[in-house]
Write a structure and sequence with these properties.
Elements lengths: L2 H4 L5 H5 L2 H10 L3 E3 L4 E4 L2 H9 L3 E2 L21 H8 L7 H11 L5 H24 L2 E3 H6 L1 H11 L11 H9 L8 H27 L5 H8 L4 H33 L7 H14 L5 E6 L3 E3 L2 E3 L4 E5 H4 L3 H4 L28 H18 L4 E2 L18 E3 L1
Parallel strand pairs: 2-8
Antiparallel strand pairs: 1-2, 3-5, 4-10, 5-8, 6-7, 9-10
Length: 399
Amino acid sequence: MDADHAFDPWSPEFVADPYPAYAALREAGRAHWYAPTRQWLVPHHEDVSALLRDRRLGRTYTHRFSHREFGRDAPDAAHEPFHTLNDHGLLDLEGADHARIRRLVSKAFTPRTVERLAPTVRTLAAGLVAELVAAGGGDLQAVVAEPLPVAVIAEMLGVPAEDEERAMLRPWSAAICGMYELNPTEETARRAVRASVEFSDYLRELIARRRRAPGEDLISALIAVEELTEQEMISTCVLLLNAGHEATVNTTVGGWWTLLSHDVRPDPDPEKLSTAVDELLRYDTPLQLFERWVLDDIELGGTVIPRGSEVALLFGSANRDPARFGPTADTLDLGRADNPHVSFGAGIHYCLGAPLARVELTAVFGELLRQAPGLRLAAEPRRKPGYVIRGFEELLVEV
């Protein structure tokens, strides 16, 4: 099999099971030029892990170079609202601005803060699962997986339950995240721009409310430190929602699909369940690819990747690399103890919300195991077409 041709992120068959293609890529070398996206594919765990920490690469290049100097075209002016929102968020900042904002936002994700949220998370998870059980089943994604992390992040940010815009948080997020797919279409861009404008307008109004009447929420806390511009606050809130629930939703649904298709269940003991959740994150990570710009020339396995290039770090491939996970790399092992998966990233962009995501995932898996021990598939699930952020349209189950 030709490794480069096996990688086809627009093929439904590839999206459903990219792992044979990843194996071919790993076998063929350490870096592969992929012309359709003008990226270097990096499939090995050791390289992905190292490059996530390598400061010769960055999520952006504009802190060091102009578009012209970097050999890149400026973004389409029609997409400006999306890029303004995206480029001021923590994930796509580098240098001093990244350090400043991460220092401020990290205060919301201290172990003490996350532990304080845990009872609320468990109560929410128990209630949502109870609804599913009372109905005899339904769409696990719509009834349980989506509402939980959105409710938690909305609570953290201070989005009032009575605000009608609260129901738009998930659709706005989905539209914006469409731009993270490879070569997004113009229609995808239009949806993302519209969502960026609407979400930003709502947050701008909410920030104004919190300036007049501060609360115990994250927006009020960010206003109080007076070190963020309004745009930085808006972009930070949007990033926290997007990153804070996309991974949790898709890990919950994808994880249960994995368990049901393997006909296995994790041990509900909290410590063992936490280990199982990490294995589900490794075995079929919802974030398959993460991009970096090459700010200074790098070399991988004799291949020089020049400044101005973009690398596509293949998280899904790294997480199944036998060089790191041994001969059982393609095997689901819910008790796997040595599990350095890269699903939450690494380096300065390591996911700030990882501790909270683990609390949410452990809570929701635990409640489903407790309240719905006979959970079973009611219909073959339909996958979404996206590859970078991989998920399902729905997961219909019976209890």
